[in-house]
TrEMBL record:
Sequence ranges assigned to domain PRISE-like Rossmann-fold in this UniProt record: 152-366
InterPro entries: NAD(P)-bd_dom_sf, PRISE-like_Rossmann-fold
PANTHER family, alphabetized: 3-OXO-DELTA(4,5)-STEROID 5-BETA-REDUCTASE
Protein name in the entry: PRISE-like Rossmann-fold domain-containing protein
């Protein structure tokens, strides 16, 4: 039977490589691939796909509009849905140093916090964990289930023979956003079938919804769980949550200012063990998972590493000297380190090196970069299940180290003219000051 994929949220950070992967790397497995997004068109993936795709621009809030959009696309007999849409909007963080100070204070009081949580009723725990989920961008949001229900209902309306639904989530499933201070049962590595953080959490609601609809409507489900994502979506704006692009732009600005590559987080984040996931790895595991129904899989791209192990090599790629965290407990805010002239520095770099026309704010989300460097506890993704289910051994990790993974992404950003090659960047004269 022919397979036709519908990728929802395929222009975002996690899902942007799914359409190219299905068309370029899955051979004749898929007869057609549709991308459903509010702003997708025929040019969105034109340079990244060897076969044509079908753009379906529609509003996930409107079931009737979805039905009409799918009918306009020929009422495709969709068999596979890949879901990477997210209704939650990221919250703007306050001052990073203040928030890290609060976290450090909480850590110092962990015995008392644990004792309090142990005797707290569920309503209090739901408030504590629900607040943390909202701050992490994955608070309970019924709109996620509304969106999924609208798409599933629209597919049923046009008679699509849906067989599998692949859901993208992430490390907050494991309590990564809480850590051992706020969740006494926190543990790392993360195992897909035995590590489960507390709710409320939008991921848990989405998982339950998909599994219930799968049982009712006769399709299977899969879930993929990435770590910090390195990816280049087709559209960049100030709301883009791209850890890799933000880090690359931050480093490029410091390079142009003739400064060291300063790690903007605290010591705890510098030394904690973690993984990275590329958008391409997410797509690869998502497509592969469909042969193993009703299973969740981690999808890290490199072995566990700490930033303290990789920072010197990353700085070396930029031709910079590395600088360890300036403050043991609090670190620094990336916006403060980049300085008030960062936007002007970036504009001059764009002009001098003929870069793509992205404003600094579309590339360097200071808030998200600081949030990414707040995880001061190990958050390691186990790969045993991938291996047990037969994922190609030479592909379990795309890269041999975190440093190699980051540098490969930096080189891609140079090729795409997002950042200049560091060898072409000459440091600008800087006024004498006490800045590092």
């Amino acid at each position: 039977m022919a397979r036709i994929a519908l990728v929802v949220g395929g222009t975002g950070m996690a899902g942007n490589a799914v359409v190219p992967h299905l068309l370029n790397d899955c051979g004749a497995e898929y007869d057609a691939v549709l991308c459903l997004s509010r702003n997708v068109d025929s040019s969105t993936f034109a340079s990244r796909t060897m076969r044509p795709y079908v753009p379906v621009a529609s509003n996930l809030d409107d079931r009737d509009e979805l039905v009409e959009s799918l009918r306009a696309a020929g009422s495709p007999e969709v068999t596979d849905v890949y879901w990477f849409a997210e209704a939650n909007r990221p919250l703007e963080l306050g001052d990073a140093r203040v928030l890290r100070g609060l976290l450090a204070l909480t850590d110092s009081l962990s015995p008392a916090v644990h004792a309090m949580l142990k005797v707290s009723p569920k309503i209090v725990l739901d408030q504590v964990y629900g607040l943390q989920a909202r701050l992490a961008g994955s608070g309970v949001n019924a709109r996620n289930q509304l969106w999924m229900g609208n798409v599933l209902d629209a597919l049923k309306e046009i008679g699509a023979p849906l067989q599998v639904f692949v859901l993208g989530t992430g490390g907050k499933h494991y309590g990564m956003h809480l850590g051992p201070t706020l969740w006494p049962r926190y543990s790392s590595p993360f195992y897909e079938d035995s590590t489960h953080g507390p709710g409320p959490l939008s991921y848990f609601d989405a998982q339950s919804f998909v599994r219930e609809r799968a049982a009712a409507d006769g399709f299977t489900w899969n879930e993929v769980r990435p770590s910090f994502i390195l990816g280049l979506p087709p559209e960049l704006n100030p709301k883009t949550q791209s850890f890799g692009i933000a880090l690359a732009t931050y480093a490029s600005v410091l390079k142009a200012q003739g400064r060291e590559l300063m790690f903007p987080g605290p010591q705890s984040s510098y030394h904690a063990m973690n993984n990275l996931s590329t958008s391409e790895k997410i797509a690869e595991v998502a497509a592969w998972s469909t042969a193993h129904p009703n299973q969740a899989f981690n999808c890290p791209s490199c072995p566990p590493f700490s930033w303290s192990q990789a920072w010197e090599g990353i700085a070396g790629w930029f031709g910079m000297e590395p600088a360890d965290p300036a403050h043991d407990l609090l670190g620094d805010a990336s916006e403060s380190l980049a300085g008030p002239d960062a936007a002007q520095t970036w504009q001059r770099m764009q002009s001098a090196h003929s870069l793509a026309g992205h404003d600094l704010g579309a590339l360097l989300n200071y808030s998200f970069l600081d949030k990414s460097f707040m995880v001061g506890h190990d958050a390691v993704y186990d790969t045993t299940k991938l291996e047990e289910f037969g994922f190609p051994p030479d592909r379990v990790y795309e890269y041999r180290s975190g440093e190699e993974c980051v540098i490969a992404f930096l080189e891609r950003l140079v090729e795409e003219r997002v950042i200049p090659h560091p060898s072409d960047v000459l440091p600008e004269p800087q006024p004498t000051s006490d800045r590092r």
